[in-house]
Amino acid sequence: MSAIKQFFSDKTHYFVVGASTQPEKYGNKVLKWYIDHELPVTPVNPNAETKIYGLPVLESLAEALKRHFDKDHPKISVSFVTPPKVSLREIQMVADISALTEIQSLWFQPGSCDDDVINFCECFGFSKEKGNLIDGECILVEGEEGLMK
Questions:
Q1: Is 15 exposed, middle or buried (0-12, 13-18, 19+ CB in 10 A)?
Q2: Strand-strand pairing, 105-108 and 133-135
Q3: CA nearest neighbour of 104 among 6, 4, 1
Q4: What pTM does this model have?
Q5: Contact in structure between 81 and 48 (CB atoms under 8 Å)
Q6: Which helix (H) or strand (E) holds 14?
Q7: Residue 52 CB burial class (10 angstroms; 0-12, 13-18, ≥19)
Q8: N or C: which end of the chain has fewer CB within 10 A?
Q9: 54 DSSP 8-state letter
Q10: Is 55 helix (H, G, I), strand (E, B) or coil?
Q11: What is each CA distance from 92 to 125, 142, 148, in whole angstroms?
Q12: pLDDT, tens digit, 9 for 90 and up, residues 9-55
C-alpha cells in the first residue's frame, strides 16, 4: 500500500495543523480540500478564530488528540501546513503527552518540515520507508491517489 493510500485508510479522522481562515493561504486550501472531499477533519491553529468553515478550531495537535472521540473514525492522520519549527514543536508536544502512538500517519506539506522534524519523527517510528510519513508531496496534487479504492 502506498503511503498516500495508507494516510487515507478507512475510518480515519484528519487534523490540519496550520489551518487558516485566509483563502489564499495553503492552510486554508488544504483544509478546504478535506471538506470538499467530505472527510472528517478538524482544523488546528493557536492563532485562528474559533471556527473555520463552521468547524471548531483547536489550538494544538496535543489538545486535538486529547479531545478526539470519533468512534466512527478512530484512526488519526495529520497534515502539517506550518513552518518546520512549528511542526517540530507540535510533534514534540504530542510526544510529551505520550500520544504519538495514536497517530497512524503524518503528511508534511511542502515546506513544513526539515531534517530536524524528520529525525524526531523517525525516533517515534514514523518514516517514508514504513509508509507512515509523507514529506514534500502536496495533498492538493497527490491527494486524489489516496481516495481511489
A1: buried
A2: parallel
A3: 6
A4: 0.94
A5: no
A6: strand 12-17
A7: buried
A8: C
A9: T
A10: strand
A11: 14, 27, 32
A12: 999 999 999 999 999 999 999 999 999 999 999 999 988 778 999 99
Identity of residue 82: T
For each of the domains in the chain, give its residue range(s) and CATH number, in order of start: 10-142 (3.40.50.720)
Each residue's pLDDT tens digit, 82-140: 999 999 999 999 999 999 999 999 999 999 999 999 999 999 999 999 999 999 889 88
Task: Extract the C-alpha cell encoding 11.
Answer: 475510518
Q: Which residue has the cell 493561504?
A: 25
- The CA-based angle 62-89-133, given to 5 degrees, is 80
The 3-class SS string of 77-130 reads EEEECCCHHHHHHHHHHHHHCCCHHHCCEEEECCCCCCHHHHHHHHHCCCCCCC
Cell of 33: 480540500
Provide the CA 24 distance to its chain's centre, in angstroms. Answer: 19
